[in-house]
Amino acid sequence: MTNDTVCSVEIIDREKVDRVNQHLTSPRETVDMAGLFKALADPTRLRIVQALLLEELCVCDISAVVDVSVSAISHQLRLLRTMRIVKYRKQGKQVFYSLDDEHISRLVKIALEHVIE
Amino acid sequence: MTNDTVCSVEIIDREKVDRVNQHLTSPRETVDMAGLFKALADPTRLRIVQALLLEELCVCDISAVVDVSVSAISHQLRLLRTMRIVKYRKQGKQVFYSLDDEHISRLVKIALEHVIE
DNA sequence: TTAATGATTGAGCAAGTATTCAAATATAAT
DNA sequence: ATTATATTTGAATACTTGCTCAATCATTAA
Prior knowledge:
64% helix, mainly alpha, homodimer, DNA-binding, 3 strands
């Protein structure tokens, strides 16, 4: 659906629209950024990230901290793994997860500042 | 569902779990933070925010920039309004939106750094 | 080898969400 | 007043998502 048909006047300020369009990131980058935010947009996943911000933890202990079933945690960890937000190491039967991205802590910190106000 | 029933050994490292738990934000704060990330977790909304990061825009022009129907944009703007992420001013028939939170630009900037790498 | 344990996976379901469409508001122009 | 325009809104729908349950895999212990 094009905007030509949506807005009867099509565009109010064509010059402004062009200017803004030129400075936007590529659609691909926008989608990727949204994906990163989406990874942090669920309380369970955010809780996991908050926990791993403090210490490396095995799946079972993450489950205990977050108070969500091991299965559910494992599903979410897979997503965080795919997003390259967490990494893991195996030690015997256990799998220890930790954060894999320095940007994450900054994002979480800013978000906390936001909600505290 | 408690973790006592989930993990056969309940908790691997009780001391670690307690320590982490003590340093976590309140559940309420976690949910609010997740809500903030969720607001930026959709490509359409993120595109809107990116645009408003550059200039104040009316709904019609946002629709043109993001290339999504005016109606859909309006629905998303309502959500961003509710989240106190954008504010607006009326001028005649038009409604101009702009960002209402200084944290947002920092979040978007960091997310961009993340995806560019 | 067999049993036990920590973790992963896939299917299914309930809840949430982004968009469309049609109708309704609000303001400006005729 | 009537018409046109910019925006908002509610309902409907297709899609996504987070969890549970059961089964499976991987590693260790007996």
